[in-house]
Amino acid sequence: MTGGGGNVGAVVAQLVFFRGSRFSSETGISLMGAVIIACTFSVAFIFFPQWGGMLCGPRKGCLAEDYYAAEWSEEEKSKGFHLQSLKFAENTRSERATAGASRTINDGII
């Protein structure tokens, strides 16, 4: 969240809180801090079914492969268009080093 909006947020914060004489520097810094806290609070509610979120764990039986394969129709899957998505899902699982079994492309299940 910070990386995506950091540059734009910095410019907007400078314009809103520090340009002109509307706010003193101390008030501008306090208001900017309140806005940062309010915006960051929303991040707690982001939830990915296969990984979970800050407030709860992943859904039982939901695998990254299922999550990414759901984007593809059966026709697209029969043509193999979804294989790169499954490789990505497998890579995300291996980078997270989570315990537990997961289906892989090499298992012949998918």
Automatic annotation (TrEMBL):
Protein's recorded name: High affinity nitrate transporter 2.5
Compartments, as annotated in UniProt: Membrane
InterPro entries noted in UniProt: NO3_transporter
Superkingdom to which the source organism belongs: Eukaryota
Mode of membrane association: Multi-pass membrane protein
Transmembrane segments: 28-48
Primary subcellular site in the record, as a coarse category: membrane
GO terms assigned for molecular function: nitrate transmembrane transporter activity
Protein's UniProt keywords contain Membrane: yes
Species classification: Eukaryota, Viridiplantae, Streptophyta, Embryophyta, Tracheophyta
GO CC annotations on file: membrane
The encoding gene: NRT2.5
Swiss-Prot/TrEMBL keywords: Membrane, Transmembrane, Transmembrane helix
